[in-house]
Design a protein that fits this description.
2 copies of one chain form a homodimer. Chain A is an alpha+beta fold and about 300 residues long. Chain A has helices at about 35-40, 40-55, 140-145, 160-165, 195, 245-255, 280-285; strands spanning about 1-10, 10-20, 20-25, 55-60, 65, 75, 90, 95-100, 105, 110-115, 125-130, 145-155, 165-175, 180-190, 200-205, 210, 220-225, 230-235, 260-265, 290-295, 295-305. In chain A, the strands form 4 sheets. In chain A, strands 1, 2, 3, 4, 5, 6, 8, 11, 12, 16 and 19 form an 11-stranded mixed sheet that branches. A 5-stranded mixed sheet of chain A has the order 10-21-20-17-18, with no helix packed on it. In chain A, strands 9-15 form a two-stranded parallel sheet. Chain A is globular. The mean pLDDT of chain A is about 95.
Chain lengths: ~300, ~300
């Protein structure tokens, strides 16, 4: 099934896709998709009842919210695209991740609000996983069983702020040979809170599609377009680390919780006609940015000056 | 007042400091300090009633939880100590931040669980701010009014995992002069989810001390000791960016919410007798790591092999 969180008369409600043009609403005690996850197998009956008896609302009328309002954590995998290994001189052979704050999330259709001072801001079209059953040290073979469904994240990034929040510094390393027990090592370190986590830098949704409707998350076409012009055209087959590998690896370090979101990393391959996402500077260009994933949906957001 | 979250008969409760040796409990509808913040000025009466009528519990009997169980976000300021400017060859002249997931939090007294595979893990003793009133674009002059109180964060860090999750790569930059509109720029980028956010990497507490009892958060002695041996001895006067500056700056980018936690950055000055925190490799040494801040309390956690 396809689930989303919408705003009706100022309150959040869960919507279930009924057909191409309409949704039905779950009872008001379900405030977001996380509440459906928490209800476990009992949610199936609630959804069935809503489909039978619920009033239909036109999709075009709906105001979308992020499907999960306040995930315990939003993990994002960096540089997870096999299309560009030649760009990496050195890096880990395991998934590298950062955390976006839940305050950065916005729903489908809501504005991405940029400021001149943000510098360049570009889109990153990504498949995202919503965790259904938490856990730590989840084996790769069991990892997909912990996934509730798939959604879309536009992992907005300001390379300008990334450059600003990068330090070239002398890190302190232990050195038993030296007088004071330390030595300085020339290092670089960058901090992503601002450049990845500013308000509206996390468009998410509109739909969470449950795993039963996505038999293989690694065969999905993913496209990004700006004002209707194709920017990237890629396939989740090009992800370097799979959903199962990322869920398992993350859970070795960070206990996963129901409702956690993991964005799988950017599809970066240039389309034949398009350019690099890095060239789509939303601060300068404004417009509407759209990410589509086969079988999952389309996430579209207009850009607004803040 | 001093507030903490404790576990009583398996359920979380809010404890208020009564005297040096005992606490009183708030009614069970307060599950953590965030609920006290949400109650607003009305919480004062509840606290007064508990102090008059509540049963006292010996501090020594208490099992501590993180004061806020699930902050909307945990922001941490990097390299915010004026004692070591000579270590930084280049970096921002504004606070650089990263996000720790709430799953990394543990209470006072709870074990820090390390694995051999984590490599080196060192403590970082920090003053932390708990936001009382949210907001965006908060002016510096009003920022302290948005703070509910102060607590202690031990911002555990694995420099081994930091090294592993650092990429040396060719970043794609726009270049209108080139054929394909881009050029490659030799860059470094590091991702902190694992090295800053692994389970138990965020000891927090035990107390949140309300701002009325901390007239100036920039005059507080802060010490860190390992198995009773002093490691660092510093003062919050050495923070480069003040609480007001950090709260204001963060809120320009990320809307702050009540219950958000901001760790102010590490006191790094070596004590006369101690060494660098980087030399206290908890993976190798085990033991008990303790952070004390004048007027706030002492946060102590044993290290356990996982």
């Amino acid at each position: 099934m396809k689930l989303g969180t919408v705003e009706i008369d100022g309150a959040p409600r869960v919507a279930v896709s009924a057909d191409a043009e309409s949704v039905v609403l779950l009872p008001s005690e379900f405030a977001d998709v996380a509440d459906v996850i928490a209800a476990g197998p009992g949610a199936v009956e609630v959804v069935d009842a809503a489909r039978r008896e619920g009033a239909r609302v036109a999709v075009s009328e709906v105001v979308w919210l992020p499907p999960v309002a306040r995930p315990g954590k939003i993990l994002c995998v960096a540089l997870n695209n096999s299309a560009n290994p030649d760009r990496i001189m050195s890096g880990p052979d395991t998934p590298a991740m950062f955390v976006k704050p839940s305050s950065s999330l916005v729903g489908h259709g809501r504005p991405i609000r940029v400021r001149e001072s943000f510098g360049r801001v570009h889109p990153e079209p990504e498949l995202a996983v919503v965790i259904g059953r938490g856990g730590a040290d989840i084996p790769v073979g069991e990892a997909v069983g912990h996934v509730f469904g798939y959604t879309i994240m536009n992992d907005l990034t300001s390379p300008t702020m990334r450059g600003e929040d990068t330090f070239h510094y002398r890190a302190i390393h232990p050195d038993p040979e030296s007088d004071d027990g330390i030595r300085y090592v020339d290092s670089w370190v960058s901090y992503p809170a601002r450049y990845k986590g500013s308000d509206t830098f996390g468009p998410l949704g509109p739909w969470v599609v449950t795993t039963d409707e996505v038999p293989d998350p690694h065969t999905l076409q993913i496209t990004c377009s700006h004002d209707g012009v194709l920017v990237t055209d890629d396939n989740t087959a090009n992800l370097r680390f799979s959903v199962a590998e990322v869920v398992s690896f993350a859970s070795e370090y960070m206990t996963l919780e129901a409702g956690d979101v993991i964005a799988m990393g950017t599809a970066l391959k240039k389309s034949a006609k398009g350019g690099a996402v890095q060239n789509v500077d939303l601060t300068r260009l404004g417009g509407v940015i759209e990410v589509s994933i086969e079988g999952i949906g389309t996430l579209s957001n207009p850009v607004e000056k803040r």
